[in-house]
Amino acid sequence: MDKSKMLLVALGQGGGNILDGILSKDKNYNSLFINSSILDISPLKNATINKNVYIYPGSGGSGRDRMKGRNLIEENRNSISETLIKYPQSEVIVILTSMAGGTGSGSLKTFIEITNKTFPNAIINLVAIMPSLSEDELSFKNTLECWNDINEVIDLINDIKFIDNNKRETYNEVNSEAASLLNLSFNIMGTHRDGSIDINDSLRINSAIGSSVILKLHDGMKDGKAALDLAIENSIFAQNNIYECDYLGINIKENSYVVKDLTKSIEVFNSTYVTYNNDFNIIILSGCEMPVEQIELIRIAYDERVNKRASRNKKRGFIVKI
Q: How do residues 248-270 score in pLDDT, each as one tens digit?
């Protein structure tokens, strides 16, 4: 993808952490951090006030309140649009946000509408972070509402990558791995005698309509099918157990795997792109189905928390006999 024509936008703290990680890998991306709290921005190494940061005026955070996040962006529609106009070269806009929070989750739908109105010809892609199943009722509720918001503007979005926080022990592990894989995905291009992926191929792979998954293959495994199965099992991206996609992008080390072994269990409906490098092994499945199985697990977890709270008998006080 052409980085000069990309704009990466972080809505809220969750998206900001991953965007900061991407910029630590490569500072050549155009970036914008949007938040309701300066405290969320302060720890980030690549977010600079008056350069690539927008803080909602007069706000002190959303407190994980989606309605507050929605109201903040509604009140500042014109200001947000004017900020986006400062990036006139944007042909691909990648939005990063947590689904479980307040600022990012609550503002996502409106931000997509503003972005589409500001850049009607731009491609809008989304990276959405799902909570782990050990989180609380509010996280699940926010996520389900955010999922519904995404579906209300789904026709304005091309590619969606859902990050699954269940796959690692800590948020830092997930954020670090997500930043690394997203950067590799955006840079999947390569030139080789046995196959090349150019900028337009990369754009096609990274912006197919549907959801997508980035898989990193381990070094040293001889069996390509086993390596792919392990990568799928360990992937931090939410996915269904149906390996069908519109486009398949493969950029692997030379002499590492046999491409036919890697692809025999994947149904590709449009095109497969292959190239080689000296440093990493990644595969991207794009134009896949939405991960409805994962959102259904979150809905079940939410119902269980609600029912448990409803059955709780919380005693506040009692009379002591004297």
A: 999 999 888 889 888 888 999 99
